Amino acid sequence: MSVAREIKHRLEAVLIIGVLKALGVMPVDAASAAGGKVMRMIGPRMRRHKRALENIARFLPQLTEVERQNLALEMWENAGRVFGEIPHSKRILDDPARFRYVGLEEAVKGVPENSGGVALSGHCGNWELSPAPSYKMQKPQLSFYRSVNNAILDRALKKYREAICTGELVPKGSDSMKRAMQAVQKGYFIGMLVDQKESQGIEAPFMGVPAMTNHAPALLVCRYNVPLYIGFVVREKGAHFRMECRRVDVELTGDNKADVPAITAKINDILGAWILEHPAQWLWTTRRW
Description:
This protein is of the alpha/beta class.
């Protein structure tokens, strides 16, 4: 790394870590609102705003230009709230008045205590709270995340995220599948967000359009015959949430070449339906297609 780049990373880290610390001493509602307000102003000035508008227009063609702009603003506000809530993740999950579960008991009913499983979500609502089920049940989970380029900032963010992780939090990498296989055999949940482009994945329809998709969850389900779960953290109002949990029924034929694409497509269908139901709570800035 060049000296100039290292200096830039250090300054960037100092600034963002300082903001996170300041947000951490604020009340939860104030920190959430502050993050949302700032991002609502900054977001439209970022290059990703144009991509968000293009994606919204593509998949929600019934909206007028004004409605698309308003939806993008709501998206940025939600993203800012997520950032503002990062230092308060544990506090939010520990407060039943702020965070409630819908369908969790039904989803895990009848599943053996020592069974592993695959738990998926996307960048929906407050995605930083997606490990909530394993946190509530104190079930060990190996959670994967996409690291940021700034190593100093990445370490700081990881410390906040580890507050609600019941197992290990690891960055995605070349050994991710190996680690996931080892963990699921030990009875761990495998947690990951699967709504982003995965160049090493397989092509599957996402909201009706082919997209390179992470097929590791389907591979794990097929190989080890473990339950598949999907959960979405829905922002109800301000820093109050409900998590919609469901167990996904899959039919395993023993032919992985057919089962893996079928399960991957089913996951994408569920994600896409949720996004279209709550469009302001998904990150439309992604290069998904």
